[in-house]
Amino acid sequence: MARRKRNSSRNNRNRGNGVWVAGFIVTAFGVWVYAQFLSPVLEDSPQASDAKVSKVDSAKVASAESATRSSVPKLTSVRPEISDGGAGRHVAEKGANPAQQGLPENAPQRNDEDRAKAQKLFAIGMQANAKGDLITAREHLTDAVKFGLSHSDLIEARAALTRIGNETIFGPTIIDGDPFVSRYTIQSGDSLGKVANKYSVTDDFLAAINGIANKNRIRAGQNIKVVHGPFNAKIDPTTFVMDIYLQDTLVRHYKVGLGEHGSTPPGRWKVGDKIENPTYHPPRGGKIILADDPENPLGERWIKLIGIAGKAVGQTSYGIHGTIEPDSIGRNKSMGCVRMHNEDVAEVFTYLATDKSIVDINEE
Predict the structure, then answer these.
(1) 303, 345 in Cβ contact below 8 A?
(2) Distance between CA atoms of 322 and 329, rounded to whole angstroms?
(3) CA 243, CA 81: separation in Å to the nearest integer?
(4) Residue 8, by phi and psi: left (phi above 0), alpha (psi -120 to 50) or beta?
(5) Which whole-number Å values give the CA distances from 160 to 150, 153, 167, 175, 255, in the listed order?
């Protein structure tokens, strides 16, 4: 009898183990089926979409908080040059006349005297740069660009001027003999905006180069670096390049997109109001697109342009802004505004000062 009981108990345990093993296999198979088939379907459901939006919104809030806590925008460019490849490549539209595309080949030709001057200035500037005489190099290389360099020398000159700008203008360093910078002591009653207006730059720019985390927290007796502005911009429709000048000295360059069918009026413009996260009001009518909407074609920056000379006079609703179509940079694709890569227009937004800065758009 005792033996029969022991055998029965052993059989019960074996059956229990078998049930447990079978249950484990079924559960594992169920998990595999969910991962392979049900999970993707459920993730596309409205409830899952709402959860994704919630996660995205939380990420946006965290990102915004992080941005608020971060010290200041970085203005030191690592851009060595502008190439003709990538998103800024000059690509003629199907069926379009290349002469209307504003390609580099259509750039105005310089005479022999100007080219000789440019080459001489370029050589002197590069020699000065090699010797560490950045102020002399900056002056001569800028003049060389104005007289007209070959394409390869122009790329090299712009790259050198960007590096020089990083060391002399867009950081806290002050080099002796630099006519564009000086040291300023904050006075009682000063605000960073008031100081910036005095020097025709923006308070965001002064905050950035001085590492000031909060523009509203400066103190009397505090010494800061100031730059004698204004910054101005010149746009060449034949190469889709925007050069940024500090007064009349070249310090930056960017790729831009312009209006189709010659709809970007050439001439002189003054910088008007600047808006972060703008709402888009279609100039030809249509749906208004709110800020932060991924379909907003203006990106996150809008710099209003006010026409004051040339064919720009009397023109309205033009500006410089970001884009949700990066492939349009380097092409005539907009309704007439100047498009930029979003990270580039964020920098230019910091440089150009309302009612102070000038934007010249050349004739094609």
Answers:
(1) yes
(2) 10
(3) 12
(4) alpha
(5) 15, 10, 11, 17, 17
Rounded Cα–Cα distance for residues 175 and 173 (Å): 6
Decide if 201 contacts 215 (C-beta within 8 A). no
Which residue in the list 151, 253, 281, 337 is annotated as catalytic?
337
Whether the model pTM is above 0.85: no
What's the rounded Cα separation, in Å, for the pair 236 and 336? 14
Q: Are residues 351 and 239 in the same domain?
A: yes
| Alpha-carbon gap, residue 129 to 72, rounded angstroms | 29
Amino acid at 105: E
Number of C-alpha atoms within 13 angstroms, CB side, residue 21? 6
Q: Answer yes or no: do 251 and 170 share one domain.
A: no
Who's near 275: CB < 8 A, 6+ residues apart? 301, 302, 304
Q: Report which residue type is found at 56.
A: V
The domain spanning residue 219 has which CATH number?
Answer: 3.10.350.10
Q: Are the beta carbons of 213 and 225 closer than 8 angstroms?
A: no
Residue of 140, 253, 321, 341 marked active site:
321
**DSSP assignment of 39-61:** HHHHHTSHHHHHHHHHHHHHHHH
**Range of the structural domain that residue 271 is part of:** 231-361
Q: Distance between CA atoms of 330 and 340, rounded to whole angstroms?
A: 9
Residue 98: the pLDDT is 33
Q: What is the pLDDT of residue 30?
A: 53
* Residue that is last in its domain, among 13, 37, 68: 68
- Chain centroid to CA 113: how far? 37
Concerning whether 321 is annotated as a catalytic residue, the answer is yes
146 in Cβ contact with 111 (< 8 Å): no
CA distance 127 to 148: 19
- Closest residue by Cα to residue 157 from 226, 76, 241, 91: 241
Dist. CA 156–CA 141, nearest whole Å? 10
Instruction: Give pLDDT < 50 ranges for the chain.
Output: 1-7, 9, 19, 21, 26, 31-72, 78, 80-107
